[in-house]
Amino acid sequence: MFKDVSGQPRPLQTLYVDNQPRQIPAGYTVAAALLALGYKANRASPVSGSPRGPYCMMGVCFECLVEIDGIPNRQGCLIEVQPEMRVRLSLSQEQDSGEEVDDGR
C-alpha cells in the first residue's frame, strides 16, 4: 500500500503490535508504520463500534489513537516509532476482555 520514496535505505527496528514483533524502517510514525504493515484500523469508534484508522496524519482528527508503551489514547500520527516500542490497538471492547478480535487487515 505504501512505498518509501526517499531512496535512502533505512535500518529496520522492531515494533510490537499487540505483542507481535514487526519490523519497520526507522523514521516512521506509529500511524504510518501500522498502515505500512497493512493495518486498516487501529481502534473502534466508542459510539458505533465501527473500525477507525488514521485519516489526516497531522494530529487534527484523532482517528489514529492507540496505546503506546502502556499509555492509552496517544496520537500515533505524531509519535515516531522507537526501538522495541509496544503498540496496542483498541479495536473493540472485546479486546479488553481477552476475546478474539478482528485486526482490520
Q: From N to C, what is the helix and strand string?
A: EEHEEEEEH
Secondary structure category: alpha+beta
Q: What general outline do the C-alpha atoms trace?
A: globular
Q: What is the overall pLDDT average?
A: 87
Q: N-to-C terminal Cα separation, in Å?
A: 12 Å
**Given the structure, what is the number of helices?**
2
Q: What topology does this entry show?
A:
Layout: E1 12-17, E2 20-25, H1 30-36, E3 43-44, E4 51-52, E5 65-68, E6 71-75, E7 85-88, H2 93-97
Parallel strand pairs: 1-7
Antiparallel strand pairs: 1-2, 3-4, 5-6, 5-7
Describe the structure.
The protein is an alpha+beta fold. The protein has helices spanning 30-36, 93-97, and strands spanning 12-17, 20-25, 43-44, 51-52, 65-68, 71-75, 85-88. Strands 2-1-7-5-6 form a five-stranded mixed beta sheet, covered by helices on one side. A two-stranded antiparallel sheet has the order 3-4.
Short précis:
This protein has 105 residues and is α+β, with helices and mostly antiparallel strands.
List keywords for this structure.
alpha+beta; 105 residues; 28% strand; 7 strands
